[in-house]
Structures are given as structure tokens and as C-alpha cells.
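Comment thread on ticket #2218

A.B. wrote:
> Attaching the input chain for the structure job we discussed in standup.
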Amino acid sequence: MNFAIIVAAGRGSRAGAGRAKQFREISGIPVIIHTLRRFERCETVGESVVVLPDDSREEFLALARGYGLRKPARAVAGGETRAESVLRGLEAIGDADGVVAVHDGVRPFVTPEEIDRTVREAEEYGAAVLATPASDTIKEAEGGAVLRTLERARLWHAQTPQCFRVELLRRAYAQPGALAAQVTDDSLLVERLGAAVRVVEGGAHNFKLTTPRDFALAEILLSSRQ
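C.D. wrote:
> Ran it. Output below, let me know if you need it in another format.
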């Protein structure tokens, strides 16, 4: 069986509104529920572990029951860094095999089809990330001055889910420094092992809700779809 780790342990202070952004509502439904509904409809993931602030787990479990979600099996407390939160989710899976899909809890617009494509790529190759091709010219700069212009055709914006064979991600998180605050991307740790990571093309709709502007855009998107 394949698993998902839904990382939702942040406090989301930049989003405003005085509460953790994963529990803020869009069109009357909490963001984390929107996200998990996408995983409910995908074919390749059988069970989810949701990583949350320790004091939010009971609130989440009540929400999950109220919305009739089937796949969230466990709610575990997150750590001080994103990487530590992912590791706690990985530990909750135990000795299981298969593929694990790590996804940001505040990316509610990922499609079930995108999840399935990324999981299947990881089943075949070991590791895969959902990403979008860079559409803007990217400059590398230092001290206010441009050092060079990067070749746009080779650049991608990494999203989630990022999917890995469970054994591979365990080895990645066993490396020294894996839990450092600057580790914000699971595929980086897998790359450090020398393993190849495949890119699966996704869409710009799969953005992460971070600022009040993101939430305003999310409301517009949901209203237009409804």
C-alpha cells in the first residue's frame, strides 16, 4: 500500500486572520479538508498520516470524522522544523513498504490525477516530484548585483506532492543534518544520496497558501469552479 504524509504543522503567521492557516476556511470549509479531499479521490494512495501542531490534533480528528474522510489514519504532532515534521510522519508509517507522497497541507488545489501520476512515477523510478516549468527569466544575484542569467529551459518550480519509495526516504532522513531548518524540500535529501529524482509536470493552480493574497485568490478559484 502507498501512503501520504500531509504536512500541516505550521502556525501560518504570514496568512493573518489569527489562526493556523490549515484550519482557515475557504468557501466555508477548512483548507486541510479541501486538501485531504483530493487524496480521498486519488487511486494510488491508500492511507494518510496528517502532521499537525500538537494542540490541534483533536480538532482535526473531529473535523475529519465530520466530513467523512476515510484515508487519514493517524494525526501526529509535528516538530520544530518542516523536516522534523516529515520524519515524524514517516515514523508513524512504521515498517511499511510502497511509496510515500509528502504533500503540503495548504496546497488544496492539487488534482487527484497529479497525485496519481507522481506516485506512479515514483513506483517506477524511486523518486518523483510535481513541478512546473519556469516561465520567467531567473537571475542569480548577490549583494544587489546580477551574477548570471540561468537557462530557463532547465529550471522548474518544485511543488508537492513529492513521492519516494519509503525505504529511500528513510535513508534520506538518516543522513547527518537532515533535520536542519534550511531543509525545506524532501527531494533535496534524496538528491544528496545520489538518487535520481524524476520531474512530473503540474500546473500553476497547485500553489501554496501563504499570504492573505493567496487566500483571496483561493476564494475566487473555488467560487469560479462552483
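A.B. wrote:
> Thanks. Noting for the ticket: The longest helix spans residues 112-125.
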